[in-house]
Backbone:
């Protein structure tokens, strides 16, 4: 998606430690014109997939999940939680997800009543690198006997390989911008 | 807002420990028809306030902040973060917020470049009880020399007094449903 690629080129920053900093428009501060257009694009790609629910994991995927849901005729959104709260259901699915940003593993959970075997789930997240978060969410969907209809991502770090591995396994993974190479001087997108 | 009150009556649950469980439509699973209508209502209330940005705190306020932003002609959303990450700006505003749900205090932060003295901020969150989160966010706005144009909340626990205290201080606080009393048998809303 050219608009997102242009934003990344013009406003993104490549920092040491393989960090692509896009918090001026994609996370922390959200450019909602961009979010509206990204959501239309994702909605168009998955329109024939009979999606019943959007699934993401807190926190930074929630905004895109919500705006994609509005673009797809107000589909329900569910999100997996990283932190146990006092009012959590007793019956939940659980999977570990390793976060390279925070350098630790989380158990993420979702109440069983929100995922049924008839659900066709579109997984949405802002970033995909090694694919740990998406694999965790696919695992939750499988535990419920539901179907992963597809995965929609704003920015994929293509050179880390997680996305291509998911595609090789037959997942319909649609990323709006795939970074194939980046350093302080240049960012190269997959055509 | 009658639609939200009806949802709370029909699908909400009052649990011990003063917990109003609404995770089937307001958090964890989000009813996006409801979110779209709540956002229109909030947008209408604050339309004359010249709001420049929507501010919330991760995680559960993000969805409502994003949908309100779309309803208000794609205003930018910014959110305060609870967790330090490796790519955080060196220059940030910080305030402690005590969470009764998690029974601990968080330092929440926002990069200074996202809040300027010319900003007129609409604070959005899903819940307000004692008002700790909103006070923390107002504090961040003040630190930047910006203006709090108003506060929009989905569900306020009116009987805990945090909301009325903010109103007494002159804050334009607009809650879509104010619970004045609740127990296992009944939930009473403020007219």
Residues:
């Amino acid at each position: 998606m050219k608009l997102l690629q242009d934003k990344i080129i013009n406003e993104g920053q490549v920092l040491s430690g393989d960090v692509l900093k896009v918090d001026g428009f994609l996370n922390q501060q959200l450019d909602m014109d961009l979010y509206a257009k990204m959501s239309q694009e994702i909605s168009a790609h998955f329109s024939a997939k009979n999606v019943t629910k959007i699934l993401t994991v807190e926190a930074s995927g929630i905004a895109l999940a919500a705006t994609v849901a509005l673009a797809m005729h107000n589909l329900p959104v569910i999100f997996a939680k990283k932190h146990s709260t006092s009012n959590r259901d007793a019956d939940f699915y659980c999977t570990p997800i390793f976060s390279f940003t925070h350098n630790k593993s989380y158990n993420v959970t979702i109440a069983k009543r929100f995922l049924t075997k008839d659900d066709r789930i579109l997984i949405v997240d802002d970033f995909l690198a090694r694919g740990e978060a998406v694999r965790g969410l696919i695992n939750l969907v499988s535990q419920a006997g539901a179907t992963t209809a597809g995965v929609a991502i704003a920015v994929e770090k293509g050179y880390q390989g997680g996305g291509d591995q998911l595609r090789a396994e037959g997942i319909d993974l649609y990323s709006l911008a795939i970074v194939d190479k980046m350093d302080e001087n240049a960012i190269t997108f997959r055509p």
User: Anything to note?
Assistant: Chain B touches chain A through 43 residues (CB under 8 Å). The two ends of chain B are 10 Å apart (CA to CA). DSSP finds five helices and eleven strands in chain B. Residues 32-45 of chain B form the longest helix (14 residues).
